[in-house]
Amino acid sequence: MPEGLQPEIGQQNTSEVMLATLLHLMRRAREAASAASLRFVLVNESHALLPYRQAALWTSDQGVEALSGVSAVERQAPYVHWLERWCKQADSAATGAAGLDLRSLSGSDEWAGWQEWLPPFLAVIPLPSRDGFAGGRLVLAREKPFTPAELSMLQEWCDAWVQAYAALQPRRWLHPLHAAPTAGRKKRWLIRSGVVLAIALISVLPVRLTVLAPAELVPLDPAIIRAPMDGIIDDVLVSPNQRVASEQPLFAFDRVSLASRLEVAERSLTTIQAEYRRNAQRALFDPESKSELAVLQSQIAERQVEVEYLRELNQRSQVPAPREGVVLFEDAGDLIGRPVVTGERIMVVADEHKTQVEAWVSPADMVNLLPGNEVKLYLAADPVNPVSARISYVAHLAEQRPDGQFAYRVRAQLDEQGQPSTPRVGLKGTAKLEGETVSLIYWVLRRPWSGLRGWIGL
C-alpha cells in the first residue's frame, strides 16, 4: 500500500470508531432507568468518545450536579464553588460547543488559581432547555486542545442526551418558571412575579359561598288534620294522595261508646224532666215539693249540657276536610284501629300546586344564610331541570332527624308558585344554598381549615 494512503485510512477508521461509540452512548442514554444514571453516563462514559481528564455537568436550576470519577458532589468543596461561579458568569449566548484556553485567564485576578482545579484546555457544550429540563452545560478538561471534529461529535452526543434526560423529568404545570433560566435572572423574576400576581388576583375574586343539603318539596301553608277527641279510628274514608273537596269526610271514629253514652244521657235527662213535671204539679198543693224544683232544674240543665256535648262529639266522630286539596298520609291500614288523643296529628290536606323547599343543613356545613338568598333544588326524579327558590326561614337551633343526626331546618319558597308545572309534594333531591359573597381563597380553604382547626385544636 502506498505510504500516502495510510493516514487517510487511519482517519477513516478513527471516524468509524467515534461514530460507533456515539451510537453506543445514545443507546445507553435511551436505556437509562433514572436521571442519576444518565448524569453518570454523561460525565464518565463520554470518555469512550474522546479522551479527557475531568468532566462536570452544570444545570441552571441545580448548579453542579455531576462530576467525573465521584459518586456524589460535595457542595461545599472549593472546586465545586469555583466551577459554579465560572459557569454562571460564562457566556450564556453560546449556541454550540466551543473550545477554551484557560491560560488566557492568567492575567485576571478574578479567575486566578485555575491551575489548581483544571487543565488548561476546556470544551464547553451548552445543553438547551427542553420540557422539564432547565438547561445547562457540560464542561470537559484536558491537557491538549479539542479539535473541531471532536466538538461537533460532542454536540451531537449532548443533544441526544438532553432528549433522553428531558424524557425522564417529571412534568411540571409551572414548567415555564423552570424553563426560563436561559432568558436570565431578570426574565425569570418577571415570570415568577407575574404568576404570583395572577394567583393573588384570582384568589381575591368574589364568589358565592354555597353548601349542599338533602331536601324535599313540602306543602306550603297546609291544613293539619288533628284528632278532635280521644278515641279509636274506625274507618278511613279516603286514600293517600287523593284529591278531596271541602267538607268531604276523611275518617271516622268508633261510635259505639259514644252512642251508648249519648243514649244513657238522654234517658237520664228524660227521667229528670218527668220528675220535674211531677213535682211541679204537686207543688200546687204541697209546699215542700216546691223547694225541690230548683234542685231538679239544675240537674236538668246539667244533663242537657252533657247531652249536647255528646251529640257534638258524635258529630265530630266523622272528620271533614277543611278545604279543597290533596290528602297526605302514609297508609290507611296504619290508621284504622289506632287509639288517638285530642290534638294528635293524623293527616294533611294541601294544595299540590303550592309547595316549598325544606332542606336540612348539617352543623359542619352551616354558613350565613339570609332570607332571600337563592336556592337550587336538583330533584332525583329530574336532575336536569333544577327548581329555583328563595330562602324564607332558617332555624336557629339544630333539630334531631329520624336518622339520629342533628341539622338546621331551612325553608325556601319557589319562585313560581301555583303554576301547573310545579313539581308535586314529596319529591326529594339535593339543594344548593347560596350564602354570602366571599373571596375565592376563602371558598377553597374554608373546609380544610375548619377540619384542621378541629384536629389541632386551634
UniProtKB/TrEMBL annotation:
Family annotation (SUPFAM superfamilies): HlyD-like secretion proteins
UniProt-listed InterPro entries: UPF0194_transport (IPR050465)
Listed Gene3D superfamilies: 2.40.30.170
Keyword annotations: Coiled coil
Subcellular location: Cell envelope
Name of the molecule in the record: HlyD family secretion protein
Organism ancestry: Bacteria, Pseudomonadati, Pseudomonadota, Gammaproteobacteria, Oceanospirillales
